[in-house]
Specification:
The protein is of the alpha+beta class. It has one domain: Sufe protein. Chain: A. It has 5 helices and 3 strands, in the order αβββαααα. The protein has a 3-stranded antiparallel sheet, with helices on one face. α2 packs parallel to α5. It starts with a helix and ends with a helix.
Length: about 140
């Protein structure tokens, strides 16, 4: 049975109005990325802490549109506690979904609410800004930077 689109909207609006992990830390053990959009108000900093091959924590703050805030909020909860390999699999599936390619919706859990973004190319940057920041930090972590 198809899911009512208003349910997806409710999840997005809840994560926009009450975002999870929207507070930066001064802890120097966190990696940090500043991300800004040329086409939207999105201007956020994302922080991630990796320990023993796992994503221990993700936080963010800044000004961002509804899609960007909600997707980064969901990302921060979804990747917490995952191994870097599991996190990479989730990010890869999310990117496939956002670009209209086949993906595993079970891996994405609540992030599946952004499936419709594939039909709105102007929103892809908003839906991926936080995810790209975490991807960059994972790449650095794996490279030992």
């Amino acid at each position: 049975m198809p899911i009512d689109p208003s349910y997806f909207r409710d999840i997005i609006m809840d994560n926009y109005s009450y975002p999870h992990n929207k507070e930066l830390t001064e802890d120097e053990s966190y990696r940090s990325r500043h991300m800004a959009s040329d086409s939207c108000i999105d201007d956020i900093t994302v922080q991630a802490k990796f320990k023993d091959g796992k994503v221990e924590d993700i936080r963010f703050d800044g000004k961002a549109c509804t899609i960007s805030t909600a997707s980064t909020s969901i990302l921060s909860e979804l990747l917490r506690g995952k191994t870097i390999e599991e996190a990479q699999n989730i990010i890869d599936n999310y990117n496939h979904m956002i670009h209209g390619e086949p993906f595993d919706e079970d891996v994405l859990e609540e992030a599946v609410v952004f499936e419709g973004v594939a039909k709105q190319p102007n929103r892809i940057g908003c839906a991926t800004i936080g995810w790209r920041a975490v991807q960059e930090m994972i790449d650095d972590e794996e490279a030992g930077k």
